[in-house]
Design a protein that fits this description.
Number of domains: 2
Largest sheet: 3 strands, antiparallel
Strand order of the largest sheet: 1-3-2
Number of helices: 16
Strand content: under 5%
Distance between the termini: 74 Å
Length: about 450
């Protein structure tokens, strides 16, 4: 046999398919033979629908093309009975996946947020429609149920139940199948409720105080005048802090050191997710809270006393609005800002701006801590010290319980103009409201 014939035979043998072991489930590279619904008896439709849902989900997980399977599911020509059954079975599967996510540490607001972030508004509204049933299935304990009910109320206005009579039914079923694939990939999270160690219940925060604070922050966000925005922001900060100090001074330290520590997940928006997370971390640290970021999903978990969590969340929102306005300002006022306007649209400038802004905010908070704490102790007396010490200890214990293994990430800046502009913007933010910062735990 000639040399060329041997080479051709070896090449042909390499091209021949080999019998490698395949994972269980339908092969996404080939279409599984499933009889069309109009050929199957109506009695077998539930099984057929489930097979199609499973096949579509498996195909999408393997990055295959599920259009043919979806087309069979949303075939209106089969009749209203088929469409109603598809709607029912897909909704049931959504409830199953949502219930499992709730069991694995996700909360209603988290599920809605991650679907909105990864898939869009319509899928988030669809999954929101099944969350109440999923919560009732799980039957959580009292404190967790109360928190989840508040979250369900927040997202209730945007729910979008599956309805086979809707003109958008076919696209909604397709979105629901994508949600199934997304929920199936979620990894478990620590249970937020597991961190709560409660003393006797205190009255809830006065809603009128929060309303006043929110109104002041809204005015700060709406105005285009920096001095006016700072005045509104300062007033809101002082009002919230005075109220929290009054509540802390009335808190009796328990003999065994028990203190209410809760968890809160703050969802952040792209772009510059890590830089925004760093700003939240320095604000949390200043308010006796700790933060752990999970950038894979786009949220930061805060741990702290409920009053401190409220203050952290509201202050961070106001500071982020202030930072964003200042970061965008050179685009419209380049002549007044010199050469920085030429760089303000660059991602490197904005990343450096936010890092510098957060870094300077953190430094200013630390500088103000000693003097502000002396003022608080002067008015409330030494009885405030054991209360704050118990909170610090409780936060540390909750952190190690929920996140026994964490790592510190380093963020770098490579834009001098952005760094300088961010520092200048941070110096304009009035943070003189911080009377309860001393002894804050390291991040």
């Amino acid at each position: 046999m000639g040399i060329r014939n041997k080479e051709r035979r070896r090449a042909k043998k390499r091209r021949e398919p080999r019998d490698y072991p395949r994972p269980a489930g339908p092969d996404p590279r080939r279409s599984e033979h499933i009889d069309p619904p109009h050929r199957a008896a109506a009695a077998s439709w539930p099984e057929l629908v489930d097979r199609l849902i499973n096949h579509a989900a498996h195909t999408e997980r393997e990055d295959g093309d599920a259009r043919l399977v979806r087309a069979q599911l949303v075939d209106r020509g089969t009749g209203p009975g088929w469409c109603s059954l598809v709607t029912e079975r897909v909704a049931l599967r959504l409830k199953d996946h949502a219930t499992r996510a709730l069991h694995d540490g996700w909360e209603p607001r988290d599920i809605s947020a991650v679907v909105r972030l990864k898939a869009g508004a319509v899928p988030a509204n669809i999954v929101a429609s099944v969350l109440p049933d999923a919560v009732r299935r799980l039957r959580p304990d009292g404190p967790r149920m109360a928190r989840w009910e508040r979250q369900l109320t927040e997202i209730a206005a945007s729910t979008r139940p599956l309805n086979h009579g809707s003109p958008a039914w076919a696209s909604d079923i397709g979105a629901a199948l994508s949600i199934l694939n997304l929920l199936a990939r979620l990894r478990p999270l620590p249970q937020l409720a597991a961190t709560s160690r409660r003393q006797p219940e205190r009255p809830d925060i006065d809603a009128s105080v929060l309303d006043k604070v929110r109104a002041l922050l809204a005015k700060a966000e709406a105005t285009d005048f920096e001095e006016e925005a700072d005045a509104f922001l300062t007033k809101a900060q002082e009002l919230m802090t005075r109220y929290n100090l009054d509540r802390a001074a009335l808190e009796e330290p328990s003999e065994d050191g028990q203190v209410a520590i809760e968890g809160l997940r703050c969802w952040l928006d792209e772009p510059y997710l890590k830089q925004k997370g760093y700003l939240l971390a320095v604000v949390a640290k200043a308010n006796r809270c700790r933060s752990v970021s999970l950038y894979e999903y786009g949220f930061v978990t805060l741990l702290g006393h409920p009053d401190d969590l409220t203050a952290t969340e509201m202050l961070f929102t106001a500071l982020l609005v202030h930072a964003t306005k200042q970061m965008m300002l050179p685009l419209h006022q380049a002549p007044a800002r010199g050469s920085s306007g030429a760089y303000a649209s660059r991602p490197s400038y904005r990343r450096s701006f936010l890092l510098s802004y957060a870094n300077r905010i953190g430094a200013r908070l630390s500088e103000a801590a000693s003097a502000a704490t002396e003022v608080a102790l002067g008015s409330a007396g030494q009885a405030l010290l054991p209360v704050l010490a118990n909170r610090d200890r409780g936060v540390e214990e909750a952190l190690h319980q929920m996140f026994p293994a964490t790592r510190t990430i380093k963020l770098s800046s490579n834009d001098a103009a952005g760094w300088a502009a961010g520092r200048a913007a941070a110096d304009m933010a009035d943070l003189s409201w911080q009377p309860k910062l001393a002894g804050a735990s390291p991040l």
